[in-house]
Write a structure and sequence with these properties.
The complex is a heterodimer of chains A (579) and B (94). With 579 residues, chain A is an alpha/beta fold. Chain A contains 24 helices and 17 strands. Chain B has helices at residues 16-27, 50-55, 73-85, and strands at residues 2-7, 32-37, 45-46, 63-69. In chain B, α1 (16-27) packs antiparallel against α3 (73-85). The chains are: A alpha/beta (579), B alpha+beta (94).
Amino acid sequence: MAEFPLRGIAASEGIAIGPAFRFVPGDLTVPSRPAGDATSEWARFEAARRAGEAELKDLRERLARQVGDEEASIFDAHRLMLADPMLEEKIRQRIEGGMGVEQAVSESADDVGRMLESTRDELFAARAADVRDVGRRLVRLLLGRPPDGLAGLTLPAVIVAEDLSPSDTAGLDPQMVLGIATAQGGWTSHSAILARTLGLPAVVALGEGLMQRVSAGDEVVLVGSEGLLLVGPEAETVAAYRRLEAEDRRRRETRRGRAAREARTTDGRRVEVAANVGDLASARAAVDNGADGVGLLRTEFLYLDEKDPPGEAKQIAAYREIFSSLGGRPIIIRTLDIGGDKPPSYLLFPREANPFLGWRAVRVSLDRPDLFRTQLRAILQASVGHDVRVMIPMVTGLEEVRRVRTMLAEAEAELAKEGRPHAGGLAMGIMVETPAAAVLVDILAEAADFFSLGTNDLTQYALAVDRGNASVAAVYQPLHPAVLRLIRTAIEAAHSAGKWIGMCGELAGLPKAVPILLGLGLDEFSMVPSQIPAIKDLISRLDGNAARALADEVLQLPTAGDVERHMESFLTELRAADG
Amino acid sequence: MVEERITVRHEVGLHARPAALFVKTAQGFRSAITVRNLDRPGNPADAKSILAILTLGVGRGHAILVAADGPDERDAVDRLVALVDGNFSEEGPS
């Protein structure tokens, strides 16, 4: 048989060679039967919905462990759909019209699916697959069938399917999957996202003919970056792709291997390069990209999507899960940083004219000691056995730091009295993100153990510019001399007081800024995980003394434009010097 | 009955997390709340139904009309408009 190429959309890079596993979901044709009375049909619907709710909760937890919280939240969407009043109304009407519940559910889900597809927008139409998945789940439960899925895959294979839903892939063992090929889908479909998260090659949208072309066990070559699937490849083709695959893997391992090493300047100064993390998935990305630690762990993810504030036990579990995934690396956890621009539903936020100058961050925490105490208690308990420091956002003065310190000590004393295991004497530091904090570092050092510069807000407050407002976007200049001078003031004051100072704003991951910050003596650079390998590489090509001279020079420049140009030519020269 | 018009600036429109947040917020009110996509012809949708909201196909730059009728209608419209106005802020300041 001659090899047969199929072309689709390149969804995730990498090359897979191996046998095909055809995944065909079970047949859920609704058998025709006379409908019972509407009341009993409706009762069956409600029972199936409760069972579906339980399954989705369980699936959500499994997928969160597999690929992280962000992707698992798809099942939250499914749960919302399951309880949706519009779907419910359509089902109710059909049942009242004398239809059996299975058919009523199946037709209603299809009905809504078509409505979504008629928006003619890829993003919205993609949700049609979700509502049909919810419909299939209900029908399956009504028919009393067990879930079908890929959990049973026991030999490594390339999965070939019409499409894959999150329900299909939950519980999937990544060791058993060489790659994924689907007939349908797009760059943002579930299979594509899952493959990229797990680092598996994938090609989607291979077309209707896929399932006819591929039989179970056929040898296939899947070339992720080219969007290519070869069915029944010739021996020479397989050999050629095996070589490519080996090279590809080596390249990826070297890139990661280099990032895992510490960053040291050419004159031997060790610099910490850390990650900003906001959930379990980004914590894993931090480790994969060679982070030395976590310079900022945001805790907002626990607060924003909920109807009620998260309880102590829930917080402890969430923090522990993230801490444990970091393999002993030091972690700076930031307490709740919310405000009127993103109010959770349980906090009654007044409508503010200036949410960024309003009730937010530490101000909310100090006004709502009930919420704050729960968070501090959870952090203290989750930190047992981990290297954790606590950081307070949006500080403007010493009273705030003292009050938080008192509350932290009280929380610790309470836990001791209750006999609950907890970490003692955690270091407590503050974000330097208001001009007030930047010029007061020498005074704040009395109550703060360390500092971390938040340059996004610092720029916004120092230059009086809303960074979300497009009409003043040009005024938002993180390399503005005023911002750089505030940074220098803060670093010098922290070091005179013998305190550690890092940075967790965007500037820390900006190649144009890194040499200046290094020259100013910054102790740690914390950034989005994907930026870490590049910044470690940059730091290891810089000389500490040269960076100091550079910083002195740059801090004398009159405008942000001058700083930008100076740094561009500096980086060009650096690249030229290194060949 | 209270109603207000607002433009959705979020890059995904009323979809995914923004849509879920919008619906969750709406569900916290007793008033009947509807949303209409002023940039696409169609009927108003129930703001408490994620599916109804999704079928509106509200993309970036579309204007919507939020209307509430009931005991807490003013609050409901204010909160939903504030949510859209604040662009469902996803990334916190750092």
